[in-house]
Amino acid sequence: MKFGIFYEHQLPRPWHEGDEHRLIQDALEQVELADRLGIDYAWEVEHHFLEEYSHSSAPEVFLAACAARTKRIRLGHGITLLPPAYNAPARVAERVAMLDLVSSGRVELGTGESSSLAELGGFGIRVDAKRDMWRESLEQIANMMVMEPYPGFEGKFFSMPCRNVVPKPLQKPHPPLWVACSNRATIHLAAKLGIGALTFAFVDPAEARKWVSEYYEILEKECEPVGHAINPNIAMVTGFSCHRDEEEARRRGEDGFRFFGYGLGHHYVFGSHKPGRTSVWENFEKARDALPSAGAHRGIGTPDQLREHLRAFTEAGVDQVIFIQQGGRNRHEHICESLELFAGEVMPEFAARAEERERAKRERLAPILERAMARKKWMRPLEDAEIPEIHALGRQIVEQMQKDQQPVPATISTGSGLSVPLTDPARR
């Protein structure tokens, strides 16, 4: 089983000068440490306007900084919001490809749509259309990263003419695709589309076993891949705080995990929020005693307790467990100490079996994935004669001047002082 760390960049009020800077710098140090320790993935969200809960509106910038500081850890968008009003599909394809080149092929593309009204309303996205927007964009982003040229698209939610979207990613045909899942229905959708399930639902291992079983059953019987490759993997989140003393592990990590859940509820479920004024942390403190506890069953405890907790996920067939270690007011030094203890005393057991487990899985799924890829509906590439030419603006101006019988100068001076011919010397 693989392990990942997860970032919302939570910052409870009250805020002080320099807090956001310190938060991001601490997170970068944690990712560097995780890379040295052998943690497999670092996942970064995209959220907008969700004060205190998530100060992470530009994950591509954070992940690029991580790429420069690390050697092997995989860098996951967990997730990129795909309704076009958030991110134009071509811009997603371009940014992901560039990050893949910068990181030497370490990108994972998690995707989603969001269900926060603060975000949806801020970008003018209709709640009843967001799933269809995500689906339309995802397929075309995959096509853009592979096809030369991309033939163009006239869809319900966005349109784009024929262009060759560059650069192309290092990973071929494209980085692994994922979708955020908060319930079984989305797990089923992930299987139908042949993409990984980033499961942001806190389920026990018995429930996880059911979700995993259903995912692979649907993958085998119903999958029509949305991408140019299938990513048959399931990741599930858990809390994280590791210390040799159970009570100290809870003292360091329980409130952070509970604030994570409370902040989620505030922005997505039950909250009423006045931008720039509401203190989610103050409300959390009032509600703290009514919130469920979080101990070993949520990844918060001793090395032995975490080992037992994670074994259950392994036996359920989960491919990756993602740790929510940065929550609430969890302290940077405690997060680093937990990661070091976990890597030294817990992770080796799972790393020892990882290669054999992966090999057996690949062999088992090979014929299933081959049949699924045969069901894919491919976008038709253009014949050479169908690819339109794009005439430069200057050329169009010259052609209009010639039509109007106006004199055409031989060159034009650009803003940099460079003189450029107004007609192509190659065509003379």
Describe, in plain words, how this protein is organized in 3D.
With 428 residues, the chain is of the alpha/beta class. The chain has two domains: 2-374, Luciferase-like domain (TIM Barrel); 399-427, no CATH class. It is built from 13 helices and 14 strands. An eight-stranded parallel beta barrel has the order 1-2-3-4-7-8-9-12, surrounded by eight helices. Helix 1 packs across helix 2 (59-69), helix 3 (89-102) packs across helix 5 and helix 7 packs parallel to helix 10. The longest helix is centred in the C-terminal third of the chain and has 28 residues, at 347-374. The protein is globular and about 85 Å long.
Question: Summary?
Answer:
With 428 residues, this protein is of the alpha/beta class. The chain has helices at 19-37, 59-69, 89-102, 117-122, 130-146, 184-193, 205-222, 246-270, 280-287, 303-316, 332-345, 347-374, 393-403, and strands at residues 2-7, 41-44, 74-81, 107-112, 153-154, 159-160, 177-181, 196-199, 234-239, 241-242, 300-301, 320-324, 411-413, 419-421.
